[in-house]
Amino acid sequence: MKQLLTILGPTASGKTTLATRLAYELKGEIISADSRQVYKGMTIGTGKDLDDYIVEGTPIPYHLIDICEPGTKYNLFEYQRDFLNAYEYIVRRNRQPVLCGGTGLYIEAVLRGYQLSPVPQNRKLRSTLEGKSLEELTTILQELKAKNHSTMHNRTDIDSPQRAIRAIEIEEYNLHTPTENRQVPPIPSTIIGTWVDRETRRARITQRLKLRIEEGMVDEVRHLLQTVTPEDLMYYGLEYKFVTEYVLGRTSYQEMFSRLETAIHQFAKRQMTWFRGMERRGLTIHWVDTRLPMAEQIAQVRRTMAET
Length: 308
Description:
Elements: E1 4-8, H1 15-26, E2 28-33, E3 54-55, E4 58-59, E5 62-63, H2 76-92, E6 96-101, H3 104-112, H4 123-129, H5 134-148, H6 161-176, E7 189-195, H7 198-215, H8 217-224, H9 230-234, H10 238-247, H11 253-280, E8 286-289, H12 294-307
Parallel strand pairs: 1-6, 1-7, 2-5, 2-6, 7-8
Antiparallel strand pairs: 3-4
Helix pairs in contact: 2-3, 5-6, 7-11, 8-10, 10-11
């Protein structure tokens, strides 16, 4: 059985390019680990970069992209279930599974074999939380996490009141309901982290944001708003939050761009904080400088795979 290869890194660090190239070299398939790329129609704003999934004219098969309708609330339990189905499908066919993404919680859940159960909505709890500020919700969540001794939520996934309420809902459920044990073993993996220095990453983020706006990100949001409420769309954070506010006339173009650029920089920093936390929790990440030529990056990954 081929061991899972994991490529993780913050936004604009070059992880998708490296992962698809490795999948091409190793006869592999990509399993996405991105909490927003699961949604159909949310392409430019989530940076799916589907052109990267064609290498030397060869399409690279991918999984867990475009599997949900926008406006729905995909969760960690569903991701773990869908990951395992994709992983087993790839391994059965003797292909190389390559997990690639920047959602640290999703990655850690499958690598460490979190025991999860589906959590239903608690309408009574939601009504008591409605109208509270994000700061108040964060305090409530922190208190619940302390009671549960939980590390299940990531600041990168709680950047709006809606997300914070869902996180509180999950912690409240787990506090009072024994988790249904699912036999999900940890999955051995060679873990590669894509690294660039802070200034290079910041420059890439700004360049990518400009490009995505030129490619039609604002029009993508306008189209989504035809079928998804503004509140539901803003739930997904970052691009969808700030561009929706602009489309609704709540902010100017320059304010939208400036606030979004700052938010993405902060998001990348929080992603790195999560990955460093994974290292402290016992997962070994082998970092590759993605400023190096692609051939050198691939050679470094191949050496690491041979050694682990």
